[in-house]
Each structure stands twice: as C-alpha cells, then as structure tokens.
Amino acid sequence: MRQNRLLLYILPAVVLAALASCSNKIHPGSAGVKRTVVEGVATSVAKSGEIPGLYQASGQVESRNSAMIAAKVMGAVTSVRVERGQTVRRGQILLTIDDSDLRQKADQARQALAGAEKAAAMAKEDATLSETTFNRYKKLYDEKALSGQEFDEISAKRSVAQLQLEQANAGVAQAKAAVKEAETYLGYSVLRAPINGIVVDRKVDAGSMATPGMPLIQVEEPVYRLAIPLDERFSGKIKVNSTIEYVDPVTGKRGPIRISQVVPAIDPATRTFMVRADLPSSEYASLRSGLYVRCFVPDGAKTAVTVPSDAVRTRGQLQFVYVIGKDGVIEFRAVRTGAVENGSAEIVSGVSAGEKVAVSGFDRIADGMALANNGSAK
Asked: Which whole number is the average pLDDT over 247-273?
C-alpha cells in the first residue's frame, strides 16, 4: 500500500518535467543561421544558347625525330658518358663497349692483308718473268728455231702465271674487305649521337652486358608535335592545314595549331584515326614529349550553358564557381567546363541556366556567406 501511494506522488512529477522540457525545444524555422554578409560582389546569370560545337580530344606530345641507339656488337659497357636530360651534339660519344676481341680481329685482318699483298707482289713478278720469257721464245718459234712442243710449254707457264696473279689480286681484295669489316665492327664499340638533341632515356650503366639489337640510349630532337587520335566521324573532314585548338598543360595557354599530317587508316579497336600537328619551338617551349594535351576540333553548333570565363576558378585540378542562391546565400560548386570563347566558358555540368554566379570579389567570399542585396548584376 505504501509503495502504491509513493507511485501516485512520483508519476505526476515526471509527467510535469517532461512537458516542461518539450516546451523548451527549438522547432524548425523558429531560429535563423547567422551568416557573414559581403557587399560589392558582381554577379552574372548563366545563359543557355547556341555555341560553336567543339569535339575534345587528348593529344600526346612527341618529338618529330627520336633516335633509339642500340648495340651492334656484344660486349661489356665500359663507359657511359651522358646523363638523362643532357644536350648532345651529332657525333658526340655516348658510351663505349669493350673492344678487346674486336681489336684483336682487326689486327689479324691487317696481318692477313699484308700477307696477301706480299703474295700478290711475288705473283706479279712471276707473271712479268713469264711474259718476258714467252716473248723471247715466240721470236725463236717464229724463226723456226724452236719446236712447237717447247713453245706450248712456255705458253702454258705464262697462262698459269697470269692466273696466279689474278688469284693473288683477288686475295688482296678479299683481305682488304676483311680489314674494312673488322674496322667497322671495331667502330661499333663506340656509340655516337646520330642527331643533335636531348638524352631522354638511358637503359644501361657501366659494367652492363650489351647484345646486338639491345636499346641503350634514346635521343630526341627538341622539336615537337602533337599526335591526336580523332573519332572516325571526322574522317575526310580534317585535312592537312586544318586548324584546331589546344590547351598547354603547363601554362594553361590556349591557341591554334595546324594539322601537318593525316593518317587516313581507322584503328578497328578504337574507331579513331591519327592526325599530327607541328608545334613551333619558339611558341611551345614548355611542352615536352609524353605530355597529354587537350585539343578542340570544330564540330558544328550546339546548345549549351555558358557563364563569363571570369566566374570559373581553378584550385589545382578542380574547377569551381560560386553560385548565388535566391536567398543570396553563396554556394561553392564544382563544375566541368568545355570550350572557352570570347570571355565565355561552356559549363558541361555543375550549373544550370538561370542560376546566378559571382564574377568578382573572390578574395572576400566563401561558401555559406551571404551577399547584400543579392549581389550587383554585371
């Protein structure tokens, strides 16, 4: 009984406390967020309209002339005289290969040539003597002072001497060819730069074993071009001297380039064909082989959303804009852009037509702030 009476006193107190706590809660919309208000920020409205269509492709920078120097003889690499990135001149020594065996073979070939020349000299003396003897005996034969058999023997000796001289001369020619071949192979032990350029790759160090056909050093001329695979629908439309645009991945510079080569064959795997565009060294000094470059090819017209190019900001690889809501609240929003023409940037995704974006005051605004009077139109 006492416990039941105690519960009668406690339960009303708990209910009253619960009601009091509920009455102190903040209901949605009953309190606002305090925001930093900024003034003097110009804005612009994203527009939808027809713009020139541009097909975007990725091109790769390559050297117009790249030489891979390979070994022609087998041997240990005795010295490597260049480093990656080093500028070299045509004919400059790049590396050397052990030439002890090749030098020995060249010496043997020279000795063989000396022996062949001595044999040829002796054969020439014999041929000269045989010719003199033949002329003397011929007079005797004409005067009937010599029998026909004796004259035939002299004639045969003369013919044999001439054949021996020819064989000796052929031996000399063969020995000279062997010397030339041995010296040529000896020269292969010293690898020289075939062009003026830059060492872009070095695959061996001193002590490595080189084998015929093994790539050792790559040198390329610092004169570059773009290799761009294009969709097959452009086949026949893109020709030599056609103009396209590119964006320098280092400086962000955008400019025109002319197509210098069109390969009409279609790759069956990618359904693309290759075009190349030369890059003048004076204007594209920041480009190097291997870089990927965005290129834009004219492709009719299309409807797109555009904003002033000043509205698009970049942070590293991220592009973004500040969108101003109807309530004046600033929103940081990532975007993907397309073509940029005449101060206007195409927005592929991230902003819709009719939305308002900031075009100035970027050093004073941030996500979550509010614009006084919803910004000033520009």
From this structure: 88
The neighbour count for residue 187, using CB atoms within 10 Å, is 15
The CATH number of the domain where 200 resides is what? 2.40.50.100
Q: What is the pLDDT of residues 121-152, one digit of tens each?
A: 999 998 898 888 888 888 887 878 778 888 88
CA–CA gap between residue 215 and residue 203 (Å, rounded): 7
266-234-280 Cα angle (round to 5): 95
313/375 Cα distance (integer angstroms): 18
**What predicted TM-score, i.e. pTM, was given to this entire model?**
0.59
**Are 217 and 229 part of one and the same domain?**
no
Q: CA 300, CA 54: separation in Å to the nearest integer? A: 7
The tally of domains found in the chain comes to: 3
Evaluate the CA torsion angle 320, 325, 331, 333 in order and state its sign: negative
What's the domain range around 355? 42-62+223-377
Mark whether 243 and 337 lie in a shared domain: yes
d(CA 346, CA 339): 5
287 and 264 both lie in a single domain: yes
Distance CA 3, CA 10 (A): 11
